[in-house]
Amino acid sequence: MLAWAAVTTAVKCPVKMNLTGHIDPDQVMTFVYQPFEVPAGVASISALYSYSQKGQGNALDIGIFDQRGYEMMDAHNGTSGSRGWSGGFRDNFTISTTWATPGYNAGPIVPGTWNIVFGPYSSTTEGIDWQLNIEMRFGSSDEWFSPAYTTVSLDPVPYFAEEQRWLRGDFHLHTVYSDGQYLPEEQIANAIDRKLDFMFFSEHNTDSGIEIYGVYQPENLLIGRAIEVTTRHGHWNALGLDRGQIIEWRYHPGDEAGYPAAAEQVHRAGGLVSINHPFTACDRCDWTLDWDNHDAIEVWNGPWDATDQLAVEKWQEFLVEGRRYTAIGGSDAHRNPDVTALPTTVVLSRGWNQAAIIDGARKGFAYMVKEPDMTMALTIDGGGITYHMGQTVKADSVAGKNAKLSLVGFAGNVASWVSDKGYVSNTTVDGDGTLEVAVQGMKFVRAEVRDASGNALGLTNPIYFS
Q1: Which end of the chain is less enclosed by CB atoms within 10 A, N or C?
Q2: Each residue of 86-120: pLDDT tens digit?
Q3: pTM for this one?
C-alpha cells in the first residue's frame, strides 16, 4: 500500500481549467474576481489569459489573490491575500513554492479558494469576452522561496546623529518586476554610473521585486523599499515601506476606506506618500483623488515637459495656501533610453539609511537637479544659525537679511527667486557662485534655475518664515 501510494503521488496529473466570461462596459474601473479551487499538494499555479479586441478599445489587467481572500485592507489591517499583479503587461504568469514570474510572489501554495482579479481598464460598447486557462501541478520539494531583502541602512551613523549629509538619489524607478524592461542589475548599474547614494524601485502594485533586490545590492548604494500604488484615478508612491508590506489600490474618489486609509497604511510604517506625475498625459495616470493625504508631490517626472510645469504650479498654489508639501522628482525610468536619475533628488539626511532619507524628504530638506553633478544650496542666516530649505525661520530674526543660493553647474542659465508673491527676480548665472535676494515680507522663498526654453534645471524646496 505504501509503495502504491508513493507511485500514485509521483504521477498525479496536473489540474487544468478552461474558464470564460464576459465583462460589461459598465464594469470598467471596477475589479472582477474569478474564483477557483486549489487542492492540497499543489506546487505551482500557471495562468494564461486572453480577451476580445485587445488593443482595439479593450484593455484588461490581471492579478491574483490567494486563499486569504481579496477583501480591501483598511488603515489598521494591512493583511492582504495579494500574490501579484502585472496589470496589462503580461498575458501569463506562474507562481510556485520556489519561484514566480516577475510581479508575482513565490512561496507556499495553501489549498482553498483563490481568485484571479481582472481589472477592466477600457471597453468597447460590446464589452470584453475573456478566456482563462489555469494549470496546477503537484509536487513536493525540500526547497522553498526565501526573500533576499536589501539592507536599508548602509552605515552605523545613528538616526538622530548630529552629522547630516546630502544624498543623491531617484525615488521612482521600474524594472521587469512590473512594466519595465530594465533588469534590476541594469538599473543598479545605471544608478552607480550616475553616482547615486540611494534609489527606490517602485513597481506597480507589487512587492515581488522587493523580495529579491537584495541579491543585486552593491556595497555603496542604498536600495529603498517602495511601491507605485496604481489606482484607476492616479498613481502615487508609497516610499519607505516595511518588509512584506502591500498597499491597497482598489478604490475610487470618496471611498470611505479608500485612498486616505491606504495612505495611513504607509504612514503607520513611517513611510512617505508622494503623488506621482499628477498631470501626466495618460488616461487614468493623472491625479483625480483627493489632495489631502500626501506628504510630497512629484513635480518633476523624467525629462522636463509641460505636465511638470503644471505640477510645479499646483505645488506653488499649495505653498501660498500654507500647505507645506515637499516637492520631489523621479526619473520613472522603464526602459532604454530612459535615463536613471533624470531628475536627481538630493536629500539632507541624518544617515545613510531609508528612515533618515524618508524623514529628510518629509521635512522638505530636498532639491532636484537635471544631472547628479549639479548642486544647489538655499540658506539664510537667522540669529547666528544657518537655516536651509525645508526649515522655518522667525521672520524678525531675518529682518533686513538676504537668502543665499549657491550654485554649481548652472552657468549661462537663469535663476529665479519665487515667494508667496510669485516670481520675485531673475538673474543670469555667470558661473559657480552665490546669488542673494531680500526676503522682507515673504512667507517663504524658493529657487529655480531654467534654460532659455524654460525647462527646469534645478528646483529647491522653500525656506519658510513664521
Answers
A1: N
A2: 999 999 999 999 999 999 999 999 999 999 999 99
A3: 0.95
Instruction: Tell me if 120 sits within 8 A of 87, measured CB to CB.
Output: no
CA distance 374 to 372: 6
Q: Is 49 part of a structural domain of the chain? A: yes
Q: Phi and psi at residue 100, in whole multiples of 5°?
A: -150, 155
CA distance 202 to 361: 16
Instruction: Decide if 149 is inside a domain.
Output: no
Q: Which domain holds residue 296?
A: 165-465
Indicate the number of domains in the chain: 2
Please report, for the domain that includes residue 64, its CATH number: 2.60.120.380
Same domain assignment for residues 47 and 170: no
Cβ distance 443 to 420 under 8 Å? yes
CB 138 within 8 A of CB 320: no
Q: Alpha carbon of 131 to those of 35, 61, 134, 274: distances in Å?
A: 14, 13, 10, 37
Give Dmax (Cα) for the chain.
95
C-alpha cell at 169: 538619489
- Write the pLDDT tens digit of every residue in 378-419: 999 988 899 999 999 999 888 889 999 999 999 999 999 999
